[in-house]
Amino acid sequence: MDLPNYYEFFNPIKINSGENSLNTLSYELEQLNVDKPLILTNQMLDEIKNLDILLESLASTDISPEQIIKNIPNQATVEIVKRCADKYNKYNCDGIIALGGEAIIDTAKGINLLISEKSKSLKDLRGIDTIHSKMEPFIIIPTATGTGSEAALKAVITDDQFNKNLEFISNKLMPDLAVIDPRMTYEMPPRLTASTGIDSLVHSIEAYTGLQRNPLSDAYAFSALKLIGSSLKPLVKNISNKYHRMAMNNAALMSGIAFANSRAGIIYAIGDACEKISGVSHGDALSIILPHGMFHNLKFEYCRNSYQDILLALSGPEKYSNTPAKDRAVIAVAEIATLLNELQLLTGIPLTLSEIGVKRNDFPDIIEKAMHNTAVLASAGKVKREDIESVLEAAF
């Protein structure tokens, strides 16, 4: 890549990654001056004993039942954020630990917003860089790979009263610490492992081809792609493999860091719009759109050059060197399509939008939604409505 004239890169998160890395938590709480953390999780993670593992790691810390909220729903909402923030104040908590996936992490970010800004309404804080106060100490322990939410500077919280999503974007939403302990993801079944792995793959590819890419985001994205190329399919075949599980956990984190700094592109914009308009799974939508969005991007030399590197990262030096330079970008897209087909045979992930319930009459609204997604601004070329329609038709 050509070195940009100017770029920004931000990642203030301390990362503790590895087998039994949760055992560092008492020390980290001490370093953050946290004596009484509010712990957020859900019923399923309680039932599969992830919460028990967390609490065992905090045996030297006095954790009372009122500090633990086990009923965080699968979607972050204004109401649940307010109730949790009230509990935080009631029991004089001094930090937040989010154990879970994107909904729990976004809920924790919302709580931190309300508490730190001493606000009564999240609606007053929505938007970009609206946070002016010092945030409360915040730790994330992800239990699902793929979203990279532990490294994201964004939160989406639903306002059920007005049936709309509130978006919050700020570097201050990032946690002080992310603990990547593979024990937290051992229970992920093959289908979910495949879907979340593809989510990380999309983040890495979009970060590596976005117009805001830079040498640092490239380093994270390329490293994530190498791990995904060597570990995703083997992990789906054997979900008990600790090495490949750890590799995918780290790939999710690194792709999230790259994505947060390089931004997204047309693939993410269309996938996100499909989720919002048709109510389909975020991961499924992205995995279906991925090869078709990449094929669309082949028309741009900027992306073709990047895709050559993606072939090297995913398929290794032998495949790369045996492929003529002029064909490497096209073969990279073909390799992605082959991987998706193999994962479909192994786990049943969908390959078309029609399979997951997207209707053709949804297309106008999806196109409108995607065109207003800021991700299209960082995508190669000037994205037009007909470009999005073409990708949707190919993916249908």
From TrEMBL:
Domain Alcohol dehydrogenase iron-type/glycerol dehydrogenase GldA: residue ranges: 12-182
UniProt keyword Isomerase present: no
Domain (Fe-containing alcohol dehydrogenase-like C-terminal): residue spans on this chain: 193-396
Keywords noted in UniProt: Oxidoreductase
Coiled coil, from the record: none
Example of a GO MF term: alcohol dehydrogenase (NAD+) activity
Gene3D superfamilies found in the cross-reference section: 3.40.50.1970, Dehydroquinate synthase-like - alpha domain
CDD domains in alphabetical order: Fe-ADH-like
Pfam families (UniProt xref): ADH_Fe_C, Fe-ADH
Assigned protein family: Belongs to the iron-containing alcohol dehydrogenase family.
Family matches, as PANTHER family: ALCOHOL DEHYDROGENASE, ALCOHOL DEHYDROGENASE 4
Protein name in the entry: Iron-containing alcohol dehydrogenase
